[in-house]
Specification:
It contains 16 helices and 14 strands. By secondary structure, it is of the alpha/beta class. The radius of gyration is 27 Å and the shape is globular.
């Protein structure tokens, strides 16, 4: 039985499926107008929008080699080494993931060869958010992964930070291997990459997180370009039992709550004692956390604590919530690895945590939110690949055999033109007399 000692808006999973919900009407309308403006006026619209929303106006938003080198020079050697280390972890795991995706060719019938190839998209636009915080880790997650997938052209945009290019983001974009780096933010950046302008050639795919306006822009552009997913506010679910303490749970909850006032942070436990200890510890930490102004809003509005009877019930509740991040700190974390189905990424045991995944450990941090973990995983090397099938028939006998079945199946659907594609092969390669518009008889008679 579930006992909710604290409930937050949507924290119990009742709103699962909201990941595809439309944005507020004013957001939809604003985004639609911006996309139309960029489509009509191109670079002129982009420049006006950048000046209006970011106070950032220049003729060319692509950073020069000198500007990139200037950003690198602003960082210490320690900073650059840390960025390089994080990117190597992402690259290493992405390479192993890529290695697990094999091209395939198999002879399914004598003379019938089927296969597939994993083909990278031709170009990718990687958006790196930088409004409240300069989130350079998003550069690792998108650009590095696209490069490992083999994408030939990788474009990246990030907004200015405090009136200039964010040095740490630019360094991460450059070290990750981006071909083109633009200091451009918001919907205008996403629109420029997707629709193309005189200065920015269009891309085939958009990836990366962003605010509600960026997410809505990706939603409206989907179909014209591919997207990774529609990400909402960061979410975290801590699953814990009496083997850990309130400080550990509270720290992991607030570590994600500081993302923004709409970030759900949920504790799910079999220990009522731990539940109360965690809530008390949250209050204590909010008194000392420098980002408490944001984390407090998230905890008050969306924080939740639920006590259940056993691990099996924790699995049921967790799968219903389908959280972006799920931190498991229990006596047997592998039980949850074996049984959980709905999550963006899983963090097993107290030695790891969501911040490791967000910044450095190597798994990707662009993950499904708002219940979307019920039907999709997060950004990974496979998102940049198209699995495209092919077929080949190597003998006359195989073509005639498949053609006979195809002819009859097409007739069942009333597709005479389709049937004639099959009939023609049966006539030529099977040397049988099939009337035009007819059907190949199963017994071999025409």
């Amino acid at each position: 039985m579930e006992t909710w000692l604290k409930r937050g808006a949507g924290s119990d999973g009742a709103a699962a499926g909201a990941g595809v919900a439309e944005a507020a009407p004013e957001v939809r309308e604003t985004v639609g107008r911006i996309l139309d403006d960029v489509a009509r006026r191109g670079d002129g619209a982009v420049r006006e929008l950048s000046a209006r929303f970011d106070g950032w106006d220049r003729e060319d938003y692509r950073l020069t080699t000198g500007e990139i080198e200037g950003c690198l020079a602003q960082l210490s050697s320690r900073d650059l080494e840390d960025i390089t280390f994080a990117q190597e972890q992402v690259r290493n795991f992405a390479r192993h993931q890529r290695g697990a995706l094999r091209d395939l060719e198999v002879e399914t019938l004598p003379g019938v060869v089927l296969g597939h190839r994993n083909i990278p998209v031709g170009s990718a636009g990687c958006y790196v958010p930088g409004g409240r915080y300069p989130l350079l880790a998003s550069a690792h997650m998108s650009i590095v992964t696209a490069r490992v997938a083999g994408v030939p052209r990788v474009v990246t945009c990030a907004p200015p930070y405090q009136g200039k290019p964010a040095a740490a983001i630019v360094a991460a974009q450059h070290l990750a291997g981006a071909d083109e780096i633009y200091c451009l933010g918001g919907v205008q950046a996403v629109a420029a990459m997707a629709l193309g302008t005189a200065a920015i050639a269009p891309v085939d795919m958009l990836v990366g997180p962003g605010n509600a306006y960026v997410a809505e822009a990706k939603r409206q552009l989907f179909g014209r370009v591919g997207i990774d997913l529609l990400a909402g506010p960061t979410e975290t679910l801590v699953i814990a039992d009496e083997t850990v303490d309130g400080e550990l749970c509270a720290t992991d909850l607030l570590g994600q709550a500081e993302h923004g006032p709409d970030s759900p942070a949920v504790l799910l436990t079999t220990s009522e004692r731990l539940a109360h200890a965690t809530m008390a510890e949250v209050e204590r930490l909010l008194g000392v956390l420098p980002t408490a102004a944001v984390a407090r809003q998230a905890w008050d509005r969306h924080g939740a604590v639920c006590v259940v009877g056993d691990d099996e019930e924790m699995v049921r509740v967790a799968d219903r919530i389908a959280s972006e991040h799920v931190q498991v700190m229990t006596r047997d974390p592998d039980y949850f690895l074996r049984n959980l189905r709905n999550y963006g990424s899983l963090f097993l045991g107290p030695r790891t945590n969501v911040a490791y995944g967000d910044k450095v450990i190597g798994t990707n941090h662009t993950l499904p939110t708002r219940g979307a973990a019920r039907y999709t995983g997060g950004l990974w090397v496979g998102k940049f690949l198209k699995t495209c099938t092919y077929q080949r028939i190597t003998t006359d006998e195989a073509s005639a055999l498949v053609g006979g079945y195809c002819s009859r199946l097409c007739a069942l659907e009333g597709f005479v033109g389709h049937a004639e594609q099959a009939n023609l092969r049966v006539r030529r390669y099977g040397r049988r007399d099939v009337p035009y518009g007819g059907v190949v008889a199963a017994d071999g008679a025409s």
